[in-house]
TrEMBL record:
PANTHER family: TESTICULAR SOLUBLE ADENYLYL CYCLASE (PTHR16305), TRANSCRIPTIONAL ACTIVATOR DOMAIN (PTHR16305:SF35). This is Helix-turn-helix transcriptional regulator. Residues 846-911 form the HTH luxR-type domain. Keywords: ATP-binding, Nucleotide-binding. Gene3D superfamilies: Tetratricopeptide repeat domain, Winged helix-like DNA-binding domain superfamily/Winged helix DNA-binding domain. It comes from the Bacteria.
């Protein structure tokens, strides 16, 4: 069901309706229509009547075969009146009688209550079953009628074509179209099926080979067995797929076969003019041939004068059958055509040069194409060209340097490291060594190894002594400044950045002095006294880099700047979009995708919108290729995502993400995750009420904190809150507050942590003072933490006997937590009750409370309205009963309701 969540949700919503519903599920062969139907059915209670009939090519001449198959699938069919079955199968009876009998059978088997009737593969169904399908739509009752079909097999003369038109005119039909999987979905499919995340190359190869067709993917995975996933790129096609692909060619005439054979060799996307030159066909003849191939569904027009095979596996099967000499001759013809016309499609030139065995031409095309594709923001294409050239010239410094940088920009860090080390080994001059070390220093940070980054930076500093005051030294200054900035050594970062700026200006190298400004600005914005100057420098760098076309520097400037700009969330979001545009122009994957979505999530947190923040990270994880290895391990968003899930009370889901972070840890697992992942484990144990486990994990956290310090401003506050909720004492948790010894740490967060400890120790007056200081303006507290500060003050005031002042703090907390969820909102609801305050959301009002609930809580509320127990909720949603109970409690608290019956009434009162 990878990539099918939205479609499955649409179908599930149709089941809940009180009126008959119709859904037509369309998609090509192997796309997952039957799998979708089975997934829908498997999530239903066992008592729901289901009729699921399957057509096949042999049913066209057997009237009502689909209905008879559906009857066999229904658990109620044993008590069916045999006379009705006899009427349906009696060829001597009139068609009207037989259809009426069929309708009566369906009515009896699907009433009372909600039910599902499925007619699968209607493109093969007999006309009588198609007619019956239409009549079932007329039956009263709560029934979901689903028909599946292949759109490309429906001609104008097919009975289903008229049926689809009539259904649209007479009923509200939900048309659900299953498309091929995207590259990200293909990667997720492989990971789900094998438990192993594929490398980017493997995912891309599989996506290109299968076109994102789930059936083809599954067959290739089966054929691969337990072998390394990387072998999937070169593994021959399984015989059943190869045979199915070749059968498409059986009816082609000789000229059409000549066209498809040439197209198969020419590549995935075939230009019309190149195909004409290689085949020797004139334009009208080639147009006629291609038109017929498109009509047959064998090829598709992918752009102006560009064609591809509908299934890449068809091309692969064709190439496998051709003689090597035949393939080489076609490559030679293509290469000569491209060279004679002066083609600047260097990737295509290199591809055909290699296929023709003309390796000098291949290397020349690779060299020319490298810089073109890097300038276009296409680093992966540049990497492929570099690797083609390196197959012939493995120690070529130009190819190694371009390849390493391209791999880094594309987010392929393993490849970047390998090529970077080869580049360093092949370097013949100090300048070349310095350039290689610059990239390797950055890569140390990217893979999460602080030690590696510092070692490479030390090597680079030593290399500087051998350099003249030229470009290599200027770039090295900027690289060392960046290393110090990333290591939070502000003083040294500023000093080296100043040297880079000075030398860059002397040499007239904007790329260097702008990089120096970025490193200096990023270092200064982390220091309270330097924020203003840092913002000014980043602003200047962003504007000047945009003017100079230095897109990578412009993107990094905006990434460090967007949420520090004057204005509000709308201005920050606009700046984030600008950052993404710059990153895309530079081809810098980690800023264009990963950092962009994480930035959107952080902006949502700054607005106090927890559901939106989680949704952004879920979207990011769907798009994330699972291949970016950064300081958070293979899951770039994992630490932030798990933290937000803990906030929302999604404990099972948070546990799964945390386990994934631990499993993906490597030797480079030393920076942010050294404290953050144990902190998340501690927080989870506390929320699950596992106090002893939490105590063990607290020791791990404190050991890490002694080495790294507190890793985030809200880290101590979150962990202390969780520990107190689990019953840990103030003395046990006090070291977390004491560990906030960084003079640059925001005082508001320090006061918040100290207030928790003081309150837990019984020193209410000091706790109240600290809570009030924390929430006072100006402060950097985020809305959720500010809300918690007000609630802490309210608790202290209530315990001190000042209920009126406590109410004021509760009211002050409400807008900060209005779009939040989980334990903070539960605390707010509890204090409202103790102080006699009504919930701001009027319980029972139509549509009230929707914004108060998370998407998962709204889903749980709908299921509660069906009368499900916690155990049934757990089975339906694939969560534990404990998590189900937490959701139910949150719903009751947020809506200020007292029973499941009231929740059901609230659900029914909402507008559709």
């Amino acid at each position: 069901m990878v990539g099918r969540d939205d479609q499955l949700r649409r179908l599930r919503r149709l089941i809940d309706g009180s009126e008959p519903s119709i859904a037509m599920l369309g998609g090509e062969a192997g796309i997952g229509k039957s799998r979708m139907v089975q997934e829908l059915i498997s999530g239903l209670p066992g008592a729901v009547p289901i009729l699921d009939g399957q057509a096949d090519p042999g049913t066209l001449s057997r009237p009502f075969e689909v209905l008879l198959d559906a009857i066999d699938s229904c658990h109620r069919s044993e008590g069916l009146d045999p006379e009705l079955l006899e009427v349906v199968t009696d060829a001597s009876r009139s068609m009207i009688d037989r259809i009426q009998a069929g309708l009566e059978i369906v009515r009896r088997l699907t009433t009372p209550g909600p039910s599902i009737v499925v007619f699968e593969d209607l493109h093969w169904a007999d006309s009588e079953s198609v007619a019956l399908f239409e009549r079932i739509a007329e039956l009263p009752g709560s029934r979901l009628l689903i028909g599946t079909y292949r759109p490309d097999e429906i001609t104008r003369r097919h009975p289903l074509a008229d049926l689809l038109t009539r259904l649209e005119r007479r009923y509200t039909v939900s048309n659900v179209r299953l498309e091929r999987l995207s590259l990200a979905d293909t990667s997720m499919f492989v990971k789900s099926a094998t438990g192993r995340a594929p490398a980017y190359r493997t995912a891309l190869s599989l996506h290109n080979r299968t076109g994102g067709n789930p059936f083809f993917l599954e067959e290739l995975l089966k054929a691969n067995g337990d072998n390394d996933l990387d072998t999937l790129c070169d593994r021959p096609l399984p015989w059943n797929i190869a045979e199915a692909m070749r059968r498409q060619l059986d009816e082609l005439d000789d000229e059409e076969k000549r066209i498809v054979e040439a197209a198969a060799v020419l590549g995935r996307k075939v230009p019309f003019d190149l195909l004409a030159a290689v085949t020797g066909f004139d334009e009208p003849a080639l147009i006629d041939g291609l038109r017929d191939l498109v009509r047959r569904g064998l090829m598709v027009e992918t752009g102006d004068d560009e064609f591809s095979f509908r299934h890449a596996l068809t091309r692969e099967a064709l190439v496998d059958e051709m003689l090597a000499r035949q393939r080489r001759r076609l490559h030679e013809l293509a290469l000569e055509t491209l060279l004679s016309t002066g083609s600047r499609d260097y990737a295509l030139v290199a591809h055909h040069a290699r296929g023709a065995g003309r390796y000098l031409d291949m290397v020349e095309a690779a060299r020319r194409g490298l810089h073109v594709y890097m300038g276009m923001g296409s680093p992966y294409q540049a990497l492929q060209l570099a690797e083609m050239g390196l197959d012939e010239l493995p120690d070529d410094v130009e190819l190694l340097s371009c390849g390493a940088r391209a791999a880094w920009l594309a987010g392929l860090l393993d490849d970047a490291q390998e090529l970077g080390k080869r580049w360093l080994g092949a370097a013949a001059t100090h300048e070349e060594r310095a350039d290689a070390l610059r990239l390797l220093t950055r890569l140390g940070w990217e893979i999460g190894s602080s030690n590696t980054m510092q070692e490479r930076a030390a090597q680079l500093r030593a290399e500087i002594a051998h350099l003249d005051d030229g470009p290599a030294k200027a770039h090295a200054f900027a690289a060392i400044a960046q290393a110090y900035m990333l290591h939070d050594d502000t003083e040294r970062a500023v000093a080296w950045a100043d040297m880079a700026i000075t030398l860059g200006e002397e040499l007239g190298m904007p790329a260097v002095w702008l990089a120096g400004k970025v490193e200096k600005g990023c270092a200064l914005v982390g220091v309270a006294a330097g924020v203003e100057e840092g913002i000014k420098l980043l602003n200047e760098a962003a504007q000047e880099a945009e003017e100079a076309g230095e897109w990578l520097i412009a993107a990094r400037s905006m990434n460090g700047l967007y949420n520090l700009l004057p204005g509000g969330p709308a201005d920050w979001a606009a700046a984030l979009e600008k950052m993404r545009t710059f990153a895309e122009q530079a081809g810098f994957e980690s800023l264009a995708v990963a950092a962009y979505f994480q930035g959107r999530a952080r902006l949502a947190v700054q607005e106090g919108n927890l559901a939106a923040a989680i949704a952004e990270l879920e979207a990011a994880r769907r798009r994330d290729r699972g291949l970016l290895r950064t300081r958070n391990g293979s899951d770039y968003h994992g630490v932030l995502f798990a933290g937000l899930l803990l906030e929302a009370g999604e404990l099972d889901k948070a546990d799964m993400v945390i386990r994934g972070l631990i499993e993906s840890s490597t030797d480079a697992y030393t920076m942010l995750t050294q404290t953050s992942v144990p902190g998340l484990q501690f927080h989870l144990a506390c929320r699950l009420g596992r106090a002893e486990q939490a105590r063990e994990l607290l020791r791990v956290v404190l050991d890490a904190v002694r080495v790294t310090g507190i890793s985030g401003r809200d880290f101590a506050h979150d962990l202390i809150s969780a520990g107190l909720a689990a019953g840990l004492s103030a003395d046990e948790l006090r070291p977390l507050a004491v560990a906030i010894d960084d003079p640059l740490f925001d005082d508001a967060y320090r006061w918040l942590a100290d207030a928790h400890i003081a309150e837990a120790s019984g020193d209410l007056a000091d706790a109240l003072r600290l809570y009030r200081a924390a929430v006072a303006e100006p402060t950097m507290l985020l809305p959720a933490q500010r809300g918690s500060g007000h609630l802490g003050a309210a608790r202290c005031l209530l315990a001190l006997g000042d209920a009126d002042a406590a109410r004021e703090h509760v009211r002050a907390a409400e807008p900060h937590l209005a779009r939040w969820a989980g334990w903070r909102v539960a605390e707010l609801t509890g204090l409202r009750g103790r102080l006699g305050l009504a919930t701001p959301v009027a319980a029972g009002a139509a549509g009230a409370g929707d914004e108060a609930l998370t998407p998962r809580e709204r889903e749980v509320a709908v299921l509660l309205a069906e009368g499900l127990t916690n155990a049934e909720l757990a089975r339906r949603l694939y969560i534990s009963p404990r998590t189900a109970a937490v959701h139910v409690s949150n719903i009751l608290n947020k809506l200020n309701l007292e029973s499941r019956t009231q929740v059901a009434a609230w659900v029914r009162s909402r507008p559709a």
